[in-house]
Amino acid sequence: MGTSEQKSSLRKAMRLRRKRMPPREVERRSREAQKRIVALDEFRSARRVGLYLPVGNETRTDGVLAQCRRLGIRVCVPAYSPKRGCYAMAWFDEEMKLVPGWKGVPEPYPRRWAGRTRLDMIIVPGLAFDRMGRRLGQGGGHYDRLLKAAGRSAGLKVGLAFDRQIVPRVPTDKGDITMDLVATESRVIRVRRRLMRRLKKKGAR
User: Fold this and answer.
1) Are residues 38 and 67 in contact, defined by beta-carbon separation less than 8 angstroms?
2) How many beta carbons lie within 10 A of that of residue 141, not counting itself?
3) 46-84 residue pLDDT tens
4) Residue 160 belongs to what domain range?
């Protein structure tokens, strides 16, 4: 089975796994996962954070957003640009309201593009992650393109998910972007540290 087929099979399984979560469980586990994010030193020292606005049973981000407001951290979220034909980051300030965007995904209004503004952290959703930071998205490649376009200005890349979305290995292609951290309701996986430990073990053989 090729990478494309592996991804398709895993997407189907993970969508079903997440769909089966009762609403109360989604909210409860989301609260715990968000506590892991806001407790990070990297979050508490941040000035600008990229955040997603959840749809369906994606891990909620309202707690992170509220903490950003309390700490005076500026927030930007993905918004679809018809002119570019892709997603880009747009500021989401307190006075803005949310309106349905492309495919019903909520977006801030009025829209103010963040451009190449340096972010300290960007929090990313996914269907599945593994312990090496590999991520499986919905299949459109939107976040991979967004993160690739942002380059280093994206800052620390943090995957936010439920424990049940962590799998042994996510199949990847060359253009797939990996996370620096993955946070769930029970833990924070620091990918760089795991990678360094793995490299040291290989070097010792």
Assistant:
1) yes
2) 15
3) 999 999 999 999 999 999 999 999 999 999 999 988 888
4) 3-204
Is a pLDDT exceeding 80 seen at residue 15? yes
- The CA–CA distances, whole Å, from 86 to 89, 106, 134, 141 equal 10, 15, 22, 10
**Domain total for the chain?**
1
pTM of the model: 0.89
Cα(32)–Cα(160) distance, integer angstroms: 11
Percent of residues, the chain, with pLDDT higher than 70: 93
Q: What is the CATH number of the domain that holds 98?
A: 3.40.50.10420
Q: For the residues of 54-116, what is the DSSP string, one character each? A: --TTSPP-HHHHHHHHHHT-EEEEEEEETTTTEEEEEE--TT-EEEE-GGG-EEEES--B-TT
